[in-house]
User: Fold these one by one.
Assistant:
Number 1:
Amino acid sequence: MKALRLLAGLLLALAASSAWAGSCPPFMLRAEDGSVINPVTGQNADKPISTRQTCGAEGCHDYAAITKGYHFQQGWDVIRDDFSKDKPWVLSPGMMGKF
């Protein structure tokens, strides 16, 4: 619960900062089912935040395009189990499966 409030506060602070001014309109945090999360009042505070519903559903960001990007995928889209015989947990050339 404390971590959720901290994350929510950070997201709200970033959204209100001058660095982001004009980039994102005021928005509500949303759960995967689209319900509003308000950690201040406790409304749905037990639900995890969904970036798809918070940032993509409002039409602010092209969530489908962002999730296809290399830095988002970090090798998830090319995962296989033959990248390293010495380190079998390395599953991709990206960060997926690495320590």
Note: The radius of gyration is 17 Å.
Number 2:
Amino acid sequence: MKHVLVVGGTGMLSGVSLWLLNQGYHVSIIARNSDRMKDLIKQTDLDSHITPLFVDYSNHDELQKKVHETINKNGDIDIVVAWIHSNASNALKIIAKEVSISKSEWELFHVLGSSSDLNRIKREVTMPTGCSYHQLEFIIEGARSRWLTNKEISDGVIEAIKKRNKILTIGQIDS
């Protein structure tokens, strides 16, 4: 069974977590909120294919430990879907390093919010050899901009995983 790590998989990416389960993946989910995890698990009969990883990903030592543990328990990670806030700038590097120790080729779907400095991120993101990097940008502009719903975000990430686009922009780009 292929193994996926989803960072933020009980909130905006909960639809992605459930879709991946239905595609036959084992899904390890980094989350901070146990109630959200319980709610997600209630939505599927594939709960034995979910590994909750309760960790604040800004705690680098604990993050590395949890990723290492899920690899040992569930096998190498084939795909990482990561929605990481800017206050944990090293979290993605820690995850990538740990995944690359045991897996020579894997994919990262990096989800970036509309407030991200996309140009800076494009310059600064360096992934290990063997990592196929996919960037998802959520941009909303115009006179009547609004936040995307969790479903719209999840649907966009699922589309990116299906199509394997290197860069995919989701949302309204102009009015």
Note: The mean pLDDT is 85.
Number 3:
Amino acid sequence: MAWHEELLVGFDLETTGTDPRQSRIVTAAVTEVKAGEPVRHREWLADPGVPIPAEAVAIHGVSTERAAGQGRPAAEVVAEIADALRGYWAAGVPVVVYNAPFDLTLLDEELARYALPRLTAPGAPAGPVIDPLVIDRALDRYRRGKRTLEAACAVYGVVLDGAHEAGADALAAVRVARALALRFPEAGGADLWELQERQRTWYAVWAEDFQGWLRRKGQADAVVDPTWPMRAADATQ
């Protein structure tokens, strides 16, 4: 069967900020989905060990006090999430991540922060990964409007019940991925590793275009990292 008819795993993080090199995990979800319906679900609440900024609390609703009082040690949470993803990849099961370079890079940085093994071995690929944001931007390139998960759900007829709650976002990302596969044969008809390489190329093309746009708008030194699905490890660590 086509990849979108097989088991898919949605993955999402809610965090302390928007910089994947510096932000910490607050909540996480891994949801197994078959035929668009969840069949197994895991969630984590971590104590990130740092204050959660008010702007982040306004998005995901988890305060510093709640995370410290109810969350588990961050190192334990980070290790369990990474083990889960590695297990799916070892079995050839694709992990669906909306804007993968953010979530996967942040998780990888958290592993390094706690002196845990990186998400992948040196030189080994992270994957298979399905990134609905990358596919949507590449195959419906000229559509106007936002490209957030909420916006994609509206375009592809997916109900998002509880945006910025990790479990809801993980399930919605899988359902958007399935909708994209059905609408665009370039995605739905590809095998997983072929699609992995197409996404890598599509992301690099987008990054080059976006960097050029930023520079034309006056940000002369703007740099948009073209690597996908995960940034390279920070050499300073």
Note: The radius of gyration is 17 Å.
Number 4:
Amino acid sequence: MSSPARSLEDPPGSLAPDHRDQLFDARSAGRYRDLSADAIDRVADRIARVDRPCTGATAEDLRPGIESVDLERPLRDPSAALDELERLYLDDAVYFHHPRYMGHLNCPVVLPALLGESVLSAINSSLDTWDQSAGGTLIEQRLIRWTTDRIGLGDRADGVFTSGGSQSNLQALSMARDETHRREGGRLADLLPRMRVLTSRVGHFSVAKSAALLGMGYESVISVACDDRRRMRPDALAAELRRCRSEGLLPIAVVATAGTTDFGSIDPLPQISDQCARHGLWMHVDAAYGCGLLVSRHRHLLTGIEHADSVTVDFHKSYFQPVSSSAVLVRDSRSLGHVTYHADYLNSRSDGSTPLLSPNQVDKSLQTTRRFDALKLWMTLRIMGADGVGELFDQVLDLAVEGWALLDADPRFTVVTRPTLSTLVFRCALPGVAPEIADGANRYAREALLASGLAVVARTTVDERPYLKLTLLNPRSTRQDIAEVLDLLAAHAERYVAQTGGTL
């Protein structure tokens, strides 16, 4: 009988390791506990020592280290692998936990959600069919019902967890398309060229991307003009709907935004819902960002969302959950049937099961295999409660108002609009400086700040000019943090002007 093969890493004369020892099961439970403790200790120690959101390392700085790793020669030793991971990843990670991370819609995470993450990763349930998830399915369904009740969608509402806002928007528009096809009849291919989706000029890019993926094309999305608070104008929406009718086009949905990515603006939901009802249109509300208002003292800002046919929520934005934790919700559970597909090996029509006794979430989802991400939110609500989450979100909303006051009173900056949620879009004013140099200075200020690692801010474009953006989602951030970041940005912009021969 031949002897077991030996790997490149095994010393001469040794037998190859039994890799079944790496499986997480009854035999390795003790080792799992030790390994997890080592990893947790390292991460906790790192977080305790983080003094800035990033190091400013570039891709060129980090690529050689990653590329030098020989993936064909395993380290074998978990401690050595964690040492390597610290060097390749933790040393230069971007830490959303730091109060001067003010870049994108990434929030610090709460401890109860991390408890849920550790459980769901280890058990590894897949939330597609009952025989893979059991209680996990019911927990997800209970959270969906809790959220639809908060929104006010009614007794027939339902939904499913997704990978994020983009997937939720895609599924919502898919349902709107198919509802229109069901109503209009005929061949879908004949209807697609006429179909149109209307959304605000500052709505999320995933709306256009979804329309393209659904066969309608990017050109099917009509951008509706906004007011000076970056909210969809109802009169402009009405005008576009009249134009569609006069041109023989077929509007299938209006996508209202409750918390635009750049401005945090909330479209006038009651007026939009009135127009959707008048024209028989599907109303989708992209509340990926603004869903935190459902547990906030500012809940009134979402008035009108209860009339939506579908809603996108991202718990990993304003509920302080680890990525990913999101859902798409519908007023009428039957709408979810548009994505149902019966596979003999998975959810066959003829296996004798019923949705009540064997609920299969795959019947509602674009995904098949799907993580039990709902558990993170479940643990958060069971430990902190909805009011606890809302209190954290309200703190960042209050901070944004303080930040706006700082910017509005500072002649070094021009701020676009008073915040509704927690983003601030502004620009280094630089009076007397040529526009192209001022543009360069604003771009440079953001990149120089990122390279320093002292803070992270975002960038965007307003009226074809580069602007800066603070996205405030950390309740630990303070007015002083904002003031210091603004001082750093102003100094970098002034340095750029001086170096390019401009005048201040």
Note: Residues 385-409 form the longest helix (25 residues).
